[in-house]
Amino acid sequence: MVTARATIDERLVERVRSKILEEYEKIRPRIDVEEGLDIEISLALSDEDVEKLVLEALKEARGPISWREFKAIFAGIVGEDRLRRILASLKARDVIVELTRTRYSLPEYVPPNELSKVKNPRMITEIMRKRGLIQ
């Protein structure tokens, strides 16, 4: 028996990770140590840049992404603690939605049958309003 806990959508992770790595290469800060040497130092991304990558990942997924999938997508780019903090910050500002079973989504990609599973209650009303379900 396969549990939901052990399941990761490998195709989703691969597709989103390749997009994030492409975006990461464009924005990552670098320092060339000395001209002519093949030594390059990469600096940590700012929180703003990490937020942009998280939002890009959610756009690319076009649906909820589990915590395990986020960890796989951002492995080697952002540490788990920092990623968790960024997700919590985006959720607190109602930029993203957290669903049950620690899954995250942009409001426009929350499946209709999962509205009752949204953990940030203010967003339920906002999603329903945007979909014309309430006024």
Report on the architecture of this protein.
With 135 residues, the chain is mainly alpha-helical. Helix content is 47%, strand content 10%. It is built from five helices and five strands. A three-stranded antiparallel beta sheet has the order 3-5-4. Helix 1 packs antiparallel against helix 2, helix 1 crosses helix 3 (67-73) and helix 2 (47-61) packs across helix 4. 25% of the residues are buried. The mean pLDDT is 90.
Number of strands: 5
Proportion of residues in helical segments: 40-55%
CATH architecture: Orthogonal Bundle
CATH topology: Arc Repressor Mutant, subunit A
Give a nutshell description of this structure.
It is built from 5 helices and 5 strands; from the N terminus they run H-E-E-H-E-H-H-E-E-H.
Properties at a glance:
135 residues, three-stranded antiparallel β-sheet, two-stranded antiparallel ribbon
List the helices and strands and how they pair.
Elements: H1 10-27, E1 30-32, E2 40-42, H2 47-61, E3 65-66, H3 67-73, H4 80-92, E4 97-99, E5 103-105, H5 121-130
Helix pairs in contact: 1-2, 1-3, 2-4
